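Translate sequence into structure tokens.
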Amino acid sequence: MSLNAAYKGYMYQDIVTAYFFAEGLARSIDKIVVDSKQYPGDYFDDLTVIKDGYIIRRQFKYSSSIERSLEDKDLTTSRSSLRIDDITHCYKYAKEFAHTNNQ
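Result follows.
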């Protein structure tokens, strides 16, 4: 992936983050955290929004290739750094982390 694609990914992250900041001004949002890993191996570190006891966590990805589709191999092999078993582990650990750290 070229740096240009990475910058476009940041642009999407910035747009969604700005939306939640605006949402926080209009309505009550308890906490917004940007670009912060909560624990080692945290994949969903781009944006965390906490509102009324609910935690919304997002990771943004961008690809400049319009001809390449997401495939099963992208989630199940070393072809990609974002495997489904790692995502599942991260999700389960995030719930445990939130409960033990009062989030």
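Note: The first helix runs from residue 3 to 26.
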